[in-house]
Structure formats: C-alpha cells, structure tokens
Specification:
11 helices, mainly alpha, Penicillin binding protein transpeptidase fold
C-alpha cells in the first residue's frame, strides 16, 4: 500500500513538472520571438510623423472607443505578432496563447509613450497601415489638423475597419456618444 501511494505521488509530481516546463517553454518562446527594443524603435523611426506622435485628444478618443472592447495594447500585440512571428499553421488555441502572452509583453516591455505611436502606425486603415493615411483619405488633412468630431470619427472607424470597407459610415449618434463619454471621463475639452 505504501509503494502504490508513492508511485501515484511520483506520477502526479511528474505531471505537474511537465506542465510547468511546458508553460515555461511557451512563455520563453514568446519572449524570444518578441521584437527587441531596437525593432520597436525601428517601427517608430519609419512611421509617419503624424502617426508616431498623434494628438493626445486622438489617443484618448481611441482609448475611450476601445474601453469596452479590445485594448490598444492587445491590438498592438496582434500586429507585432503578425509581423514578427507569423504562422499560418498556428491553431486557434496556440494563437490565443501567443496573443495573450504578446499582449502581456507589450504591457511590460513597450514604454507607454511609444504605445500610441505604435498603435497609430500599425493600425489597419482599410487599405494599409497608419492612421494619418486614413485621415488624409477621409478628411484630406493630416491627423494633427482634425477637429475633435473628425478624430472621433476616425477612432470609431479604426475600431471596426471592415465595416467601413463595405461603404458604411460612422453615424453622428455614435460619434457624439463617444465624444460625450470622452468628455465625461474628464480628459476631453
């Protein structure tokens, strides 16, 4: 009876250690594949100056628009994952684990002041990447010259770009609700 109990305990211990090593391996692989600080800086150096340093009102509107959905860090993580660790054969579970880990790595490794620049330069705009390019197409002016209403429109478009590719427009009601929530949060003017 003592030997059976010891054998069972050894099996449980083996299973626990195997799980721990598996988790350490997955986390280590994600950390190893994550872009270096130089890679992140390289993205920002190549970025459109308007995307690299977006207006603070636009940044806050985007954060407000995403407050009930996917965070901007998660969106940056998804884009970085697609650039630095593309894997068409990755299954759904592996994708979710990688996505979770890269979101965590973005929060830990990317300085907050660089996050909005990465978001704006990597955001899908319907035809390519970059918020300033979308601003030019939609409003014929750079991001820094947009009114608060125009910035809110772009923030909503970026939240669901596929809808606007199909010809939908941002309703005035949605835009006004976003601005109202933005102002209510105490950061809008």
């Amino acid at each position: 009876m003592i030997r059976l109990w010891s054998y069972g305990r050894a099996v449980v211990l083996f299973i626990i250690l195997s799980m721990i090593l598996g988790v350490v391996g997955v986390v280590g692989a994600a950390y190893y594949a994550f872009p270096s600080d130089a890679d992140i800086e390289g993205i920002l150096v190549k970025a459109d100056p308007e995307d690299k340093a977006p207006p603070q009102d636009f940044v806050r509107l985007v954060e407000t628009a995403h407050s009930k959905g996917v965070s901007t860090t998660a969106l940056v993580a998804r884009e970085l994952l697609n650039i630095y660790a593309p894997d068409d054969k990755r299954g759904a579970l592996k994708w979710q684990v990688d996505y979770f880990l890269w979101d965590l790595l973005v929060k830990l490794r990317v300085p907050h002041e660089d996050l909005s620049g990465l978001y704006c330069s990597l955001a899908f705009n319907g035809e390519g990447k970059g918020v300033n390019a979308l601003s030019g197409r939609v409003f014929s002016k750079p991001l820094s010259e947009l009114s608060q209403e125009e910035m809110a429109t772009l923030a909503l478009m970026l939240r669901s770009p596929h809808q606007f590719l199909q010809g939908e427009s941002v309703s005035k009601d949605k835009r006004d609700r976003l601005i109202s929530e933005f102002r209510r949060s105490g950061v809008g003017s």
